[in-house]
Every structure is written in C-alpha cells, then in structure tokens.
Design brief:
It is a single chain. With 376 residues, the protein is of the alpha/beta class. It folds into 2 domains: 124 residues, P-loop containing nucleotide triphosphate hydrolases (Rossmann fold); 148 residues, P-loop containing nucleotide triphosphate hydrolases (Rossmann fold), CATH 3.40.50.300. Helices cover 34% and strands 13% of the residues. The chain is built from 12 helices and 11 strands. α3 packs across α5 and α10 crosses α11. The longest helix has 15 residues. It is globular and about 65 Å long. The C terminus is likely disordered.
C-alpha cells in the first residue's frame, strides 16, 4: 500500500463482533510493524466521542463493526468514499438478517469502483444467493470443502436427556479427564450460559468465565484475556465466540447444546485443533436436538461418533422450566356462571328490531326444503 496522508480510509474491514475488531487490528499491527501504515478499530459499547477523534486523525485501514461504522459515517466525521478494498469477514454471519440491512447501507455509501473480498468458513445457499445478487461475477476460492471440519479435531457425542444430567456429565468429565486444560463451552442462550456457570462455580474450585452480549464491554475483554492467558480453565459462552476468534491452545470444545444452524457447529468446533494441534469436540445431545444432529451430519457428510453414557453419572429427573411439557387447556366454551348476565337496554325493542333476517328468496327456499327433509 503506497503512502498517503489522506484522512479517509482506503481499506475497510467489517466484522460481526467487538472481539474480532480487536483481534483483526492486532494482526494488522503485526503485519505492518515496519510499514508506514495507519490503522484503527471502532466498535459499539464504548464512547463514540473518543472514536470520533480517532477516525478524524485519519487512517489507511479501518476495522469496524457495522453499527458503529454507520454511526460514525452518518455524523459526518468519517468518510468511506475513498475505500478501494472492502473486506467482509464472516460473510455468512454478516449477510444474515440481523446484519444485512446495516451491511447494505454501508455498501450504498461506498464508491462503486472497489474490490470486494469476503471470508467465511461456511457459506449457506441463501447467503451465496445474496452475494451473487449484489456483487458482479464473484469468484470463489475454496481452501477446504464446505462443511469439512479439521482432521485434527476428534468429535464425540453423548445422548443426554436434560439440563441437570448435562451438568452431571460435564462435572464428571472435568473430574476424570486430566487433558481438559482449556475448555470452551457453548450454550444455546445467554440464560443457559449464566445458569450453567452457577452450577459449575465452586466445583473442584472452578470459577468459570461467562461471555455473552449482556456482559459489559470491559467484562468481555477482561474475561477473554483471562481465558487466553490460562487464568480461566473454563469459558462458557454463546455463538458470539464461534466466529473467527483465534484463541490459542483450546484443548476441548463442549457443545452443551447443539446449535440450530449446522454451519455454527463447524464454527464452534473450529475453536480447537488450531495451528496443527489436536483438539476434542464433545456434544451433549437431547431428544429435541436429534434433528440438529442430523443436519450437522448431513453437512459434514459423516456421522458424529456416539459414546456410551458413563454408568457412574447420575441421570437427573429434575427438569428446567424450558424442558417441562407445555400444558394444553381446552377452550372455555361454557359461560362463566359468576358473570353477570347482560340485560341490555331498559326498554323493549320495537317490533321492527325484533324481526329476524331470514335472507332473500333463495335462502328462504333452502330453509323450507331443509325443514321438509328434516320432517321426513
């Protein structure tokens, strides 16, 4: 990239999460150590005035989340009219319904003449259709076949009926498997992540970290840093951590609950087995998640090996509110006798209002014939 003293960025990189902004900018810093290249990262959840000053000073490469990028652009402090290369990381996530309107708004502001570069470990047909619609003759470069997990990841799964049995199983694995040195646990919701953390806190002196979008910005960065440095053995999170983050030496990924989208499974287990190291991905599968298991296996074109459930692990009969069957009630057709009967107006209806609408001649004839048939 040739030197330029212009304020507007020439390379724009958009990513779905704040954590990815930090990671990508760190990599840019390493790659440009001996280059005269200015770069910056902006994201939501922090003071926008500080970031206004940052972008006003000018940069060559800007890394941003879509929402904060639009905020800065619409205030007029940031211009993206000079962008020559537009990079979308985790493009399948960025073109999902949640991010798509923001990305489309960004593309409307960008200059028409630019190079578009997109990256993702997976690509759904819907997103591929969107790409073909909005980009001119895109070329696809495939490093690994779609849906192919890394060979160095050992996949395993257990049939586990409910939440508390899953808790019992994860406790058993932590107590008996000494190779579980750095464990990343994925749950299906923020509430489930918090609940699991409560169950594991104090067990074997474990204090798990929790990371999801309800946590403050400082808390998220601090938790991630502790997990990266090995100060946290277990990190419980949602799919916010499945996208692109490069955390070294994750020994195990545990799918406490399977993701709804099979592509997310590939992203999740890809957090282990990195840098040519071996990793283990373990999934806890209940009856409802069997359909998701089938979709995942169809995507990978191979089954997930099932292990026998350990006999020493107690199977809990306690269910959470979400797991309890929903009661079905009959519609209350009978009138509640306690309700006061509506007596209507105080005066009697006039004769004309007491007449019953019997319809036209055709309807009257049908009624007459029906009455005759009934008598027969």
């Amino acid at each position: 990239m040739p030197y330029s003293d212009q304020r507007a960025p020439r390379v724009l990189i958009v990513v779905p999460t704040r954590e990815l902004v930090i990671q990508v900018e760190d990599e840019i810093r390493k790659l440009t150590t001996y280059m005269n290249v200015r770069h910056a990262g902006v994201y939501g959840g922090t003071n926008i005035n500080t970031q206004k000053k940052l972008v006003y000073e000018g940069m060559d490469i800007l890394v941003a989340t879509p929402g904060r990028l639009l905020d800065l652009t619409l205030t007029g402090v940031l211009s993206i009219k000079s962008v020559q290369k537009f990079v979308i990381d985790e493009v399948d996530e960025m073109f999902n319904l949640g991010f798509r309107p923001q990305v489309m708004s960004i593309m409307e502001i960008l200059p028409e003449k630019r190079q578009n570069i997109m990256f993702s470990a997976t690509l759904t047909r819907e997103v591929e259709t969107v790409i073909n619609t909005f980009f001119n003759h895109p070329e696809q470069v495939v490093i690994a076949p779609h849906g192919t997990p890394l060979d160095q990841i050992v996949q395993q799964a257990y049939d586990v009926p409910n939440f508390y049995t899953k808790v019992n199983l994860i406790k058993h694995l932590l107590a008996t498997d000494s190779s579980m040195e750095k464990v990343l646990v994925f749950t299906g919701s923020k509430r489930l992540a918090d609940r699991l953390a409560e169950e594991l806190t104090g067990y074997l002196d474990i204090k798990p970290g929790v990371l999801h979008s309800n946590k403050s910005q400082n808390n998220r960065f601090e938790t991630l840093k502790k997990f990266e440095n090995g100060k946290l053995k277990i990190l419980i999170t949602t799919d916010i951590m499945a996208r692109g983050l490069d955390i070294s030496d994750v020994s195990h990924v545990i799918n406490f609950s399977l993701p709804t989208l099979p592509e997310d499974y590939i992203h999740r287990i890809g957090r282990t087995g990195r840098a040519d190291k071996e990793g283990v991905a373990i999934s806890f599968i209940n009856e409802i998640e069997k359909e998701s298991q089938g979709d995942i296996e169809q995507l990978m074109k191979k089954p997930i090996p099932m292990l026998p459930f350990p006999v020493e692990v107690a199977i809990s009969t306690i269910t959470t509110e979400e797991e309890k069957p929903t009661a079905l009630y009959d519609k209350p057709y009978l009138v509640n006798p306690s309700r006061k009967k509506n007596t209507g107006a105080f005066h009697e209806k006039s004769a004309k209002n007491q007449q019953v609408n019997s319809g036209g001649a055709g309807r009257k004839e049908k009624k007459r014939k029906a009455a005759i048939r009934k008598r027969m």
